[in-house]
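Troubleshooting log. The previous structure file for this entry was overwritten by mistake, so regenerating from the original sequence record. Sequence copied from the archived sheet and checked twice against the printout by T.R.
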Amino acid sequence: MIKSSVKNIVIPFSICILMALALYPDSSLNPDTYSTKGLELDYNISEELGMVSQDHTVKYNLFTPHLGKSFEGFKEALAFKESRGNYFTVNTLGYLGKYQFGTETLKLIGIYTPNQFLYNPELQEKAFIANAERNKWVLRKDIKRFEGQKIAGVKITESGILAAAHLAGPGNVKKFLRSYGVNNLSDAYGSSVKYYMKKFSGYDTSMITPDKKARVTL
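Regenerated output below.
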C-alpha cells in the first residue's frame, strides 16, 4: 500500500519536473550542477599514439601523413608544384593533369589520347613513372657524373635531375649540367631547371629503373 502511494506521488512529480525543464530551460538548467569535479577522466592521447615533445606534451598525431623524402614524397611534392595535385586540370598552355604532361611527351611513352589521359588518374600515375624511367635512362651518365657536385650553388641530386627533366626535358637538363649552370632554361611561367634542381633535391628516387623503352600499359 505504501509502495503504491509513493509511486503515485513520484511519477506525477517527475512529469512536472520534466515539463518545467522543457518550458523554462534557461532558468532551470544550472551549469554548476553538471561539474566534472571529482570524476576520473582519462581522455588524453597516449604517448604511443602521439609525437611527444621534450616536456612530455603531445604535439602531433602520428596519423598525420608525412611523406618526407620518400619517393611518394617526391611524386606528391612535384605534383603539388605542377597542378596542386589536380588530376583534371589543363593549364593555359594545354599541359594536362596532375603532373602537367604535354601531348608530345605523352606520345613518347605510348599515350595518344589526351582526353582519355586527363580523366584517368591511374593512367596519369603510370605515365609519371614511365616518363621518369625514360628520363633516368637518358640522363644516366649525367647522374653518375654530376651527382653530389655543386653547380650554380645547387647540390646536384638524382631527384633534382629527374624533377628538372620533368619540367624541361632531359636534353635541357644535360645542357644545364654540362654548362655548369650557364644554360638554365625557364618555362613560360618562370620555373627554371636550376629552381627544380634545388626544390626537389634529396628525395629517394632509387626505385626508378632506367628504361629506354618505358611505355604505359593499363
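Residues 71-199 form one domain. Archived copy saved in two places this time.
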